[in-house]
């Protein structure tokens, strides 16, 4: 049952990539900005809960609530102080600057703060679902892994339903596709940008808390997760959360199969080479032309 267990492990890992890809895709859809700090919010959530629960002695629910509240306030303040001036000020930044720089700088800032507060050791929040692994017909799945997979499906599904079937979702789409037209139609694009930025930051932090018992986090872990989430979101043209979710799951399964059957040492190298070859061979079908052209 090696194949089946590798697929399960890949789905769990892919769920991690998929959630961050969905967060990147949703916020890009409303703001046309790539959030390269989404993994850092997850790292901050996991390290914050670990510190408050293990070191400060707070009950786990209180530690989670305090951490998420701090992250929400910080994300709101960053939008008001930095992103509002960058996008809505008299001297609005354009092009690659607004697309990458402001959240890229935010990633470095969060990493530095996390290193100062939590050090360089590996940390993880306590497992939310303890117990022995679930087993059936030779297949094994950790309870934490099942929780991660369920969270990915729920988060991705909720965003998909919201965008596809609600008026708020249609307004969100309009904010990214034609900001000026959306404002003329009475849609508050600034409000939607702020809500989605704060919302995805909190979702990423919560998911980091859920999945950190599997992977563990250091202050540098956020950048790696953001990179893979960014790649998966790119396969959805940065605007399609459903496709980003599927791409994240696919990348996780591919990574696991290559590590299990080809090489654990060179699996990642081969995986990224295959993904690059797919982009070169079929850019339109994978959404990369729309990602570049906007």
Question: What would your notes on this structure say?
Answer:
With 294 residues, this protein is an all-alpha fold. It has a single domain (2-293), classed as ABC transporter involved in vitamin B12 uptake, BtuC (Orthogonal Bundle), CATH 1.10.3470. It is 77% helix and 2% strand. It is built from 13 helices and 2 strands; from the N terminus they run ααααββααααααααα. The chain has helices at residues 2-31, 38-55, 60-88, 96-118, 143-165, 167-177, 179-184, 189-215, 221-234, 241-261, 267-281, 283-286, 288-293, and strands at residues 134-136, 139-141. Strands 1-2 form a two-stranded antiparallel ribbon. Strand 1 (134-136) and strand 2 (139-141) form a beta hairpin. The longest helix is centred in the N-terminal third of the chain and has 30 residues, at 2-31. The radius of gyration is 19 Å and the shape is globular. The relative contact order is 0.21. Residues 289-294 have low confidence and may be disordered.
């Amino acid at each position: 049952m090696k194949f089946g267990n590798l697929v399960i492990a890949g789905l769990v890992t892919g769920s991690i990539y998929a959630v961050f890809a969905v967060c990147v895709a949703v916020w890009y859809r409303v703001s046309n900005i790539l959030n390269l700090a989404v993994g850092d919010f997850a790292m901050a959530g996991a390290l914050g809960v670990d510190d408050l629960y293990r070191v400060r002695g707070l009950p786990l629910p209180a530690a989670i609530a305090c951490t998420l509240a701090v992250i929400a306030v910080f994300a709101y303040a960053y939008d008001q102080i930095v992103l509002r001036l960058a996008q809505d000020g008299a001297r609005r930044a354009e092009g690659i600057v607004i697309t990458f720089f402001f959240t890229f700088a935010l990633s470095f800032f969060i990493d530095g703060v996390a290193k100062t507060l939590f050090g360089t050791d590996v940390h993880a929040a306590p497992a939310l679902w303890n117990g022995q692994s679930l087993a059936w017909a030779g297949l094994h799945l950790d309870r934490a892994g099942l929780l991660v997979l369920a969270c990915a499906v729920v988060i991705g599904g909720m965003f998909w339903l919201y965008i596809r079937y609600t008026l708020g979702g249609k307004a969100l789409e309009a904010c990214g596709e034609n900001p000026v037209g959306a404002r003329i139609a009475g849609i508050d694009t600034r409000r939607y940008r702020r809500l989605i930025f704060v919302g995805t930051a909190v979702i990423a932090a919560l998911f980091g808390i859920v999945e950190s018992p599997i992977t563990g986090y250091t202050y540098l872990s956020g950048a790696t997760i953001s990179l893979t989430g960014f790649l998966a979101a790119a396969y959805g043209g940065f605007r399609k959360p459903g496709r980003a979710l599927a791409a994240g799951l696919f990348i996780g399964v591919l990574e696991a199969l290559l590590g299990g059957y080809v090489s654990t040492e060179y699996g990642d190298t081969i995986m990224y080479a295959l993904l690059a070859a797919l982009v070169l061979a079929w850019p339109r079908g994978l959404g990369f032309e729309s990602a570049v052209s906007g």
